[in-house]
Task: inverse folding
């Protein structure tokens, strides 16, 4: 097994799906006996400065030509193609979804990122993605089907734990970013205010303006006291939040996989979410799906699960069964290991 480097921008211990995936993959590769060096790169975002690009180029350019580099998608999509093409080492692109498809980007920047990432695919020795849906997306962008592999996220926590009865609690977990659709969820909740429920939205602030807008929306719709923006929770508290929930709801506008959805499956929670991206493939028959950006349809699905105990329990059983079948992180690392060995 050749030594390799795993380049990740910023603090890889951030509690978002992408960073959790990178951190756990790194840890499991190392636990399997592989010599994998964690290379921390600047957290430069979709428009890295000249200074950041220079630092990235120097860090990546110093890597031995014979050793593979696993390159996080936030860097892969933001790198100018000539810089990537100039690297001597073989690059394994670890991709969650194209940067240019992120919601809220200015249209010219989105087009530039999509074109740049498409060009960069030609300079990856292999591409590893988190879902069959994302594989299809990158194949449409020109990735060679023979050089693209799916490594589903793992889940190492206990599965099928008994629920802690806490009433009709609705849980949503996701970064406070536009793509996660928390505004749609809040509007949906406002239209079922006649029912008995409480809701908790867990996730770190990505954009303070969006977090502020969500808080204002809750106040304006008269949901203060019923809808809580809980912020980022410690692992034990998040585990307890899943166990106390009756329904998991995520009104996402797009997911390249949906790790919070998979966590809900592992806890046997019936799910209301949206028919977009990789979501249908992740949740299968354990969820009610609404169109994205449709608060009325989302509210109708929530009302159905809150009022229909038998239907809710049927979905919960399907969720638990699907959760039991999900891979462990050691399985995810084994997939990446086979990719590295096959270069």
Result:
């Amino acid at each position: 097994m050749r030594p390799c480097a795993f380049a990740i921008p910023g603090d890889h211990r951030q509690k978002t799906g992408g960073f959790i995936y990178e951190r756990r993959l790194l840890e499991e590769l190392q636990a399997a006996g592989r010599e994998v060096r964690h290379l921390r790169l600047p957290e430069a975002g979709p428009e890295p400065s000249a200074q950041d690009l220079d630092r990235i180029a120097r860090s990546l350019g110093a890597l031995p030509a014979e050793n593979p580099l696993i390159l996080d998608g936030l860097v892969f999509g933001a790198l100018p193609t000539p810089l990537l093409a100039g690297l001597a080492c073989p690059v394994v692109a670890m991709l969650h979804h194209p940067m240019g498809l992120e919601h809220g980007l200015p249209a010219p920047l989105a087009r530039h990122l999509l074109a740049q990432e498409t060009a960069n695919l030609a300079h990856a020795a292999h591409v590893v993605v988190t879902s069959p849906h994302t594989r299809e997306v990158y194949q449409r962008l020109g990735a060679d089907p023979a050089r693209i592999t799916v490594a589903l996220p793992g889940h190492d926590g206990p599965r099928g734990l008994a629920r802690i009865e806490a009433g009709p609690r609705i849980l949503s977990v996701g970064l406070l970013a536009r793509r996660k659709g928390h505004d749609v969820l809040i509007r949906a909740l406002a239209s079922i205010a006649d029912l008995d429920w409480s809701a908790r939205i867990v996730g770190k602030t990505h954009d303070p303006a969006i977090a502020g807008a969500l808080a204002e929306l809750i106040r304006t719709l008269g949901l203060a006291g019923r809808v809580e923006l809980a912020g980022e929770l410690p692992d034990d508290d998040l585990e307890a939040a899943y166990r106390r929930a009756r329904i998991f709801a995520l009104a996402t506008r797009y997911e390249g996989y949906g790790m919070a959805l998979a966590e809900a499956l592992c806890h046997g929670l019936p799910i209301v979410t949206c028919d977009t991206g990789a979501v249908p493939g992740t949740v299968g028959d354990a969820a009610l799906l609404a169109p994205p950006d449709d608060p009325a349809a989302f509210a109708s699905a929530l009302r159905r699960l809150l009022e229909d105990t038998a239907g809710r329990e049927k979905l919960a059983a399907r969720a638990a069964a699907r959760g039991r079948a999900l891979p462990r992180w050691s399985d995810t690392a084994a997939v990446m290991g086979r990719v590295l060995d096959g270069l």
Remarks:
- The two ends are 11 Å apart (CA to CA).
- The mean pLDDT is 94.
